Amino acid sequence: MKHRSFIGPILLIALGAALLARNWYPELRWTDTIARYWPYVLIAWGGLRVIEIVVGTLRGRPLPARGVSGGEWVLVVFLCVIGSGIHAARSLTVAWPGAFTMGGVEVFGERFEYPVNVEKTVAKTPHVVIQNPRGDVQITGADADTVRVTGQRIIRSMDRSAADELSRESPVEISGDANQVVIHVGGDSAQGRGVSHALEISVPKGASVKVEGRGGDLRVANIAGAVELTGRGSDLELHDIGGAVNISGAYSGSVQLERIAKAVEFNGARTVLRVEAIPGEVRIALGDVRATNITGPVRLNTRSNDVRIDGFTNAVDLTTDRGDLDLRPGQTPLARIQARARSGDIRLSLPPNAQFTLNARTNRGEITNDFGAVLKKESEGRRATLQGTVGSGPVIDLETDRGEIFVRQAGAEALKKIEQ
Amino acid sequence: MSASNTSLRPPLLTALRGPALMILLGALFAVEYAGGPNFGRTWPALLILAGLFKLIEYMGAQKA
Predict the structure, then answer these.
(1) Nearest-neighbour CA in chain B from A269: distance (Å)
(2) Among residues A225, A241, A268, which one ends one of the domains?
(3) Does the ipTM exceed 0.85?
(4) By a Cβ cutoff of 8 Å, what residues of chain A touch chain B?
(5) Is the previous residue joined to A333 through a cis bond, with omega within 30 degrees of 0?
(6) Cβ of A46 and B20 within 8 Å?
(7) Does A34 reside within a domain?
(8) B60: distance to nearest CA of chain A, Å?
(9) N or C: which end of chain A has fewer CB within 10 A?
(10) What is the pLDDT of residues A204-230, one digit of tens each?
(11) What is the domain count for chain B?
């Protein structure tokens, strides 16, 4: 006789008990519980199955051919999809309160807010480390010798007493001395339990800043020192920074960098950018990198992004896996340019008086040339090359495996726009 | 009959592979929700565990 598993009945009993509890205690917010604890169903399920197999073996029962049947794996996939979806929706509710309501009641708990206001006197040029912020943070340099943190702690909870307790576990503290300041946001144990912050942090203008983020939007402005960002977040905005900028965090939203006086190093999940300074701006969004008025040498390596750079000095080295590259140096003399795309078009718009040596090659595509017969075009099958020298200038290498190449003369109007 | 059943019996490790993967899957999600690294970064651990089970099963079969 085939041995039947006891896990099915146990899961059925657990499901019945949960639904019964929901009917008897309607104040219990079951979606919140599911969002947090559904992975433990998998752990318990697997654990019970291990016990069943081991006990069965000890009792001499035949081992099952598979510990988990195909049907069970289908259920596991459903559970993962539904559980992850509910958890993602709960996280969304923390960011956008009121997004999920049922009968006028918020599904994932009520929102409680607590004011945050801490301050410490520091030196004129301190190094400020901000640890663990989860939520939106705005850091601004000011003509003052204090570090001040104001804003709100936002807690999603079933009731006020639980929210009070979470609030006590999540203090915002300033420690360290006058030169080395540490702002610690929230107790680690409370993070991920519906606690987030919306903070405005004011630091001396001469400060250097390091942020170890845990999520949310981050805005840093008017800082004379270096800025270092790690961890993760959503949107990122940096402007008017006097020192070097190093970003090695994972930012899921858009990234905007404006008026940065020293070197910028951006190591994102899909884009790596190194540039000596950004007098203009750089915007990195999903599928799109745009830079205007930047100081090279520029090195940009990106996946699945269209890239457009208007106005740059010094050498440029661009690589993309999938996406179009659009380069407009905007001024002469030119510097060395290297642009490679695995799949995508390359557009290069040069001033009419530009001097350069060009090596352009596409393995599958056409080449369009505005500079006339001085550049020699050759085609063989799907492959095309364009080579030649105009005056005495730097080497420009353009290469795409699959895509077209356009070597254009920028019109006077376009040049004027770039110069502006 | 009994002896034949014993020889055809799949090894214990093969039977435990599925449940172990299920436990690890749940643990990886639980770790993420507790503020640890997210599942998008930790999922290859599932492949490693599956590979380890296969390797041990293979080595067991070689010895037999």
Answers:
(1) 12
(2) A225
(3) no
(4) 36, 38-47, 49-50, 53, 57, 62-68, 72-73, 76, 80, 83-84, 87, 188, 191-192, 214
(5) yes
(6) yes
(7) yes
(8) 17
(9) N
(10) 999 999 998 877 889 999 999 999 998
(11) 1
Looking at the fold, whether A149 and A84 belong to one and the same domain comes out as no
**Range(s) of the domain holding residue A120:** 109-225
CA B40 to chain centre: 20
Q: Could you read off the pLDDT of A226-285 as tens digits, one per residue?
A: 999 988 888 899 999 999 999 987 787 889 999 999 999 999 878 899 999 999 999 998
Structure tokens that stand for A377 in this block? 């075009």
* Cβ A226 vs Cβ A244: under 8 Å: yes
Asked if the Cβ–Cβ distance from A62 to B21 is below 8 Å, we say no
Q: Is residue B1 part of a domain?
A: no
pTM: 0.64
C-alpha separations of A300 from A284, A319, A406 in Å: 12, 6, 20
Q: DSSP assignment, residue A188?
A: G
Consecutive H or E run containing A156: strand A146-157
Give the count of Cβ contacts less than 8 A between chain A and B.
89
Interchain pair B11, A63: CB under 8 A: yes
Which domain does B25 fall in, by range?
A: 11-63
